[in-house]
Amino acid sequence: MRIALLTEGGYPYPSGDGWVWCDRLVRGLADQELDVYARTRAAGRPPHRLPLPGQVRRVAELPLDGPPPAGPGPRGRAARRRFRDAYRELAGALADAGNGTPHPDADGGSAAESTTAGSATGSGAGGAVLRDPVKDRFADGLYALADLAREYGGLGAAPLGQSAMRALEDACRAPGAARPVAAPRPRDLLAAAEFLERALRPLSAPWYGADALGGADLCHAASGGPAALPGVLAARWCGTPLLVTEYAVRLREHYLRGDGGRPAPAVRALSGAFHRLLAGEVYRHADALTAGNAHVRRWQEHCGADRARITTVHPGMNAAALTAVGEASEAAAPDPDDTTLVWVGRIGPAKDLVALLHAFAEIRGALPAARLRIIADGPADPGYLAQCRALAAQLFPDEAADTVTAGESPVAFEEVGSPYVPTPADAYAAGGVVVLSSAVEGFPGTLVEAMFCGRPTVSTDVGAVREVIGGTGLVVPARNPHALAEACGALLRDPVRRSLLGAAARARALELFTVERNVAAFRALYLDLVAHRPARPAAVPFTHPAEAHVPGHWTAPAPTGPGWAASATVTTAAITATDPGTPAPAALPAAPVPTASARPLPAPTAPAPADRRPVGPGGVGTVGGFGLVGDTGARGVVGGVRPDAR
Amino acid sequence: MTQTRSGRPGGAPEAGAGAGRLRGPVDPVLALIHRHYDLCARAVDPLEIAAGLEAHGITDRIAARFRHRDVFTLAEELYARVPRDHAPDCPERDGTGVCPEQPMGRRAVALHLLPGVVCGAGVAVSRLTPAGVAPVTGGVALAAVALAARTAARSGPLRASGARGSTLWTCWLLAFALYGPYALQALLGDGSARPRGLLDPVSAAGFLARALALLPAAWCARRFARGARGRLADSHGLAGFRAGVRPLLVAALGLFTVALLALVGAAYALLGHRVDGVDLVGLTGAAALGVLLFTAQLLAVHGFAPAAAWGLGTVCAAQAAGLAAAACAGATSPLRALVTVGGPGVVQAAVCGAGALALALYALPALGRAAAHGGDRPAAPPPYDAAYAAALFGGPPSHTPTAPAR
After folding, report:
1. pLDDT tens digits for B232-254?
2. Interface pTM, i.e. ipTM
3. Chain A within 8 Å of B79 (Cβ-Cβ)?
4. Does the model's pTM come out above 0.80?
5. φ, ψ for residue A4 (rounded to 5)?
6. Per-domain boundaries in chain A
7. Looking at beta carbons, which residues of chain A come within 8 Å of B164?
8. Taking CB atoms and an 8 Å limit, are A186 and B385 in contact across chains?
9. Cα separations (Å) of A616 from A250, A436, A613, A638, B230?
10. What residues of A are in contact with residue B53 (Cβ under 8 Å)?
11. Cα–Cα distance between B24 and A582 in angstroms, integer?
């Protein structure tokens, strides 16, 4: 298989968020061909690429910043007019996006919409029937610009030209524009135009030929939003299936980090609208979506992604170094005297170490022998570290067993890489219970590592903690030192329970969070996507029998049976309908199918609440379970896991 | 994220508190609004509030205590209830690239003075050496001055990414200023003409003035760029910006022209005391060349390098055409009459003057575009912009919901 990996701001350079995961995936797919299409920062990125394994055939880069690409852009009066009109549509959509329906339609609308959008994308055409006029205008403008860029070999500096700026100004000043953008200064317009120019650069990239994305078997976007834009265009022009993986919601990242500098409200409104509308467009056109955890999945659903197409694929961890610790702890007998708590992570305010220290003070009241080791893994926030040290010194004065030995504080601040804790595995091995006290958390990587080491854990109920921990550790509310103290104390007093929970945690981690698991999940998704891809027009005559061009599947029997089975017919019809000139099959319903989705997958009739959906890479079954209809539990079994099995 | 006294992130020690802990009949969302007032007032989008709330640790379960299905609907309520405050309270951060309005350091000033010094030395050397080698010393001095000017323009407000050919055209223009009049005379059949290099007071004065004018040129360019940035921030629209920038450009070009004329006059007075009549045409040509080069550089600085190169190239072609016309001119050629009336510098004066005028006319609308004044801002912050996040989401809650802090 030839897989095009689309990245933004990270891989193949060791920067950004997702490069570690991308690197593991690429290394795991040793038997495939990979092309990497990267949007990279020209300024501020690491000077050297990661060493790329042999399966990476090609790396194409497009700068995210710097001057606009050299190129003549649209030439001639007609082309310039087309550009202006398309840009006006796009700008109008962005300026109006803050009004009317304040958010992309939530679950209520997405089911009806997915039916229509699904059938349209299934047939490889981009003209999905959209209900929201703003989304409609955005898509129209975007694709018109893309077509123009393809025709003229790029947009060049046209998005910074006078006509584009004027279109942007008119859109902002038009009645009905959202309030933050209503009175833009030239500076804001300029910043917005520069933002849009950078965001639209994938349109001008020479990536859509048969030797590039057009020839790939599928596109895998390593994050949503701008990274997936080339994939959307490839799907539109070449019919390449698109898989979008999000471990962090790109849209949310945009809101939290901004896109450089501190722009004025008008610029933030326009860029936010662009990211939001683009996210919706990407979700609509992606043939499969994977979410790193339930939180990401919720954002995706909120932004208009079809539930039936989302699979949860947890990030895989490199467990080789940690498994030895886990094996050792499993082999050893429970140690009743091990009353050391370990905290591992990057020290910062979000980790709420203050609560941990207060909780530990309470634990010490009941268990005077308890120790706490706070081990920094990664750069610490120096101010917060100093504050925590001061608090620890205040709460826990140095103590000694008798009057002749030197005193020592029960709370030790250490860091990975020091002589006592050379590696992260040593950090987890250092204590009997691993504790996580975060107030805010995304995917708790340290928790997973602790699970690999067979350590029982006590964690606060934040982010994806519940999902990760399952029943293999104790979960307490965030910002509740008393609850944290009680849970830790209970575990410290009960060595048998500790070892049982540790073993369970280790088993769960090995089942769900290994790299192999992650890569296997993606491999299955790839196979599934490629299997559903419409056959390409044959270059050699007679490679396909004539019956292959007849509407409806020529080997399958005529559709009979319950209503949901009609979806299979629709799927095959959608496949053959890409051949130009083929009449629309009679089996294709004119009206949207009320219950069954037109996707290759029969949608569950009653989708389970997000919390109760299969959380493991059992999503393999979600997409691949062609014959299993609508039963969440059944799909979990097909995936080989019952992740919520305790 | 800023720390409050309790050391909890985001200054929300009771963010997890449910409605049950609040006393009185106050609706619980009001407390949330109070706590996250800045975030809500500054948001341009409910999703921005949702992202900010999540960054503060508010999850769906906490949202349920506010009688909302999830954080998104809670954020929508907050977005609807808090009046927008879109005052640009975050100062715009400019790009990391070299801002033209940065004051020039001592080193930059010295670099900009260097061509003048080199040129002065060249003139002195030309006068000290025998007259026969004057063309050679002049050429060497010219090359040295061009090199020094190029170095100077790399660092200051005149820094630009030149288009292809612009260096070549500039060299041709300078060489023509030095040898052009002689070549014209020689081609027209004037046997008495000798190449005098920098011994010719008009050429020497022109060179010295242009070399010394580098500093005023940098100053004018910086003044223009700074003014345009100011207009960018306080104009009401693109049309207003265009109208505001035009006088700035005219002022910049005018100031430079006046400064250059004064320098030419002074240099001529200094060097030309042995000449009886003042060669007004030649001096005008020298000044016109300076204005032409300045206008072209100004265009190149603001992203119109190809247009500037085209302009310079056209002027060079016109000069070459003048030479060609002189080579095949008959006795009654208008060129011959022109040279007889105006002296050998007439071609340069006419061509450079016309070129400078044309480029200035081109620059008036071109530099009135907002896109000409964009700095190169970073496309995205390195990994995590803590200060930005703090400004957006952190900070202690404002004390009165109606008047946000900062």
Report:
1. 888 888 999 999 999 999 999 99
2. 0.76
3. yes
4. no
5. -100, 120
6. 2-63, 77-305, 320-511
7. none
8. no
9. 22, 22, 9, 12, 56
10. none
11. 70
